[in-house]
């Protein structure tokens, strides 16, 4: 978790500060449900961060509070030294959310022009349309746009106030793989220019490829926060693949092995084995120095695997606390 800056020496590189924020709702069966539980985070200018977690983890609630659409029960959120609502009113924040419809009878360009007229200051319409990849369909009615094209239109609307922060909730839903990649290329260019990007997604490969930082939420709490590659290492369970035909005794002597899987491609051929390990260096050295295994390759856990392992660990810890 990132350290908080002091009031005497403000860190101007920090755009968003979330300090000990909690939000509760009434549960359907009575009582209260804590959607966000004592969350503290900071986000720097130009940082691209993926906010991940299973359904019900608290991601959307947290994003809504950062956008000023909801208020914390306790704790504090500031954006560039202002409250979220003030920052939104000042045009510092743009958002592409799952909710919110578009007028189907307007054209793409008319939609952008209409929303631009609502802003005191805004980027040129042609500029945001080009950035969002809408120029070629400018005269198409919204009703005839695909789901991915409508997402790109919402993205253009989010860019109009030239925000310092863009918040994206499932931004590439409905886009094909090519469109998704083009979208993230545009987001990377914005981040290079100093825009902070905070996004929630179920496409974990997007977070793995494009997010410099990953924050993992589970049951309203932050269970992992750091550079995306570090989160993958934190989960452990790297994979080592070798070509080898070991005996049961050979397997029993291997260090740091959590599990293994044998792949037999054909009769008479040496099988391939995939080991899952929490200590890839130790296992790889043993395989190289003390066994005839060859064709050794090492792959860290994917972000999806890390996501699953870390949430499983959290659930297991919670079960132990309850049983104790």
TrEMBL record:
Pfam families for this protein: ABC_tran
Compartments in which it is found: Cell membrane
UniProt keyword terms in alphabetical order: Antibiotic resistance, ATP-binding, Nucleotide-binding, Transport
Record's keyword annotation contains GTP-binding: no
Xref: SMART domains: AAA (SM00382)
Topology in membrane: Peripheral membrane protein
Domain ABC transporter: 16-244
GO molecular function: ATP binding
Annotated transmembrane regions: none
Protein name (database record): ABC transporter ATP-binding protein
Organism of derivation: Nesterenkonia rhizosphaerae
